[in-house]
């Protein structure tokens, strides 16, 4: 394991603890980490959970993830709109 992989693993552990405690920002951040690790289904699940909890960045990230998938552009647009309506950012 490289130094960078070790940092990501440790970060993932802390994000998981915070996500399990119901912290929407951690669900979003863990989703981003998992997405970069090649686990898009897990990332999408976490983005959806965080978005449902009101995290506008997760709404945006979910939209971005869906926009890259064929046949899901309409759903992506809905999430982009929700993120905008929620004020964007955190």
From TrEMBL:
<dbReference type="InterPro" id="IPR011990">
    <property type="entry name" value="TPR-like_helical_dom_sf"/>
</dbReference>
<protein>
    <submittedName>
        <fullName>Sel1 repeat family protein</fullName>
    </submittedName>
</protein>
<dbReference type="Pfam" id="PF13374">
    <property type="entry name" value="TPR_10"/>
</dbReference>
């Amino acid at each position: 394991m490289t130094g960078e992989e070790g940092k990501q693993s440790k970060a993932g552990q802390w994000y998981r603890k915070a996500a399990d405690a119901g912290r929407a920002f951690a669900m979003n951040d863990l989703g981003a980490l998992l997405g970069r690790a090649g686990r898009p289904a897990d990332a999408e699940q976490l983005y959806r959970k965080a978005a449902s909890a009101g995290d506008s960045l997760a709404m945006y990230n979910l939209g971005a993830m869906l926009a890259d998938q064929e046949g899901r552009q309409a759903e992506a647009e809905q999430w982009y709109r929700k993120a905008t309506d929620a004020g964007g950012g955190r």
